[in-house]
Each structure stands twice: as structure tokens, then as C-alpha cells.
Design brief:
The chain is mainly α and 85 residues long. The chain has one domain. The protein has 4 helices and no strands. Helix 2 packs across helix 3 and helix 3 packs across helix 4. The longest helix has 26 residues. The model has no long low-confidence stretch (mean pLDDT 89).
């Protein structure tokens, strides 16, 4: 291994993780990726709810679309989001 990807992880542990990922069946990798995407979705929504505690669910969905697609593209599909400080 040329270098470490994770400076806070011991090189032997990182090598073991890499070996486990390489040996893992594709269906398990897909499961892990799906869980990661779901977790990032939930974290983004939680962050939006924290930043905009008075926002209705529809506004949170619009703001989430803005995060994923960018404000300009999201507004073309979902309408202009009136941003509040």
C-alpha cells in the first residue's frame, strides 16, 4: 500500500478493511451502499429540520431538493423556494 486513506486508522486495520471489501460479494456491497445513501438522506433532512425548525414538511422537501439538485435546477422542477434567514 502506497499511503493511508484514513490518517486516524491503523494501517493494519485499514488493510483488513480493504481486504474484506474486496472479498465481499456484490450483493453485500450493494446493501452497504444503500444503507449509506439512506443514512446520508436522513442526516441531511435532520440538518434541515434543525436549521428550519418552523418549516412545514413541504418546505423541508423543497430545501432537500435544493441541496441535491442545486437551487436553480430545483426551482425549475419544484417552484421557487422563498428562502428565509
Amino acid at each position: 500500500m502506497v499511503g493511508s486513506y484514513y490518517p486516524d486508522t491503523h494501517p493494519e486495520v485499514e488493510a483488513l478493511q480493504g481486504r474484506n471489501l474486496r472479498e465481499m460479494p456484490p450483493w453485500r456491497k450493494a446493501e452497504l451502499l444503500t444503507a449509506l445513501v439512506r443514512s446520508s438522506h436522513q442526516l441531511a433532512l435532520a440538518g434541515l429540520r434543525h436549521r428550519y425548525p418552523q418549516a412545514e414538511p413541504a418546505e423541508i422537501k423543497l430545501r432537500y431538493a435544493g441541496l441535491l439538485l442545486g437551487e436553480e435546477v430545483a426551482s425549475k422542477f419544484y417552484g421557487k423556494l422563498h428562502t428565509k434567514p
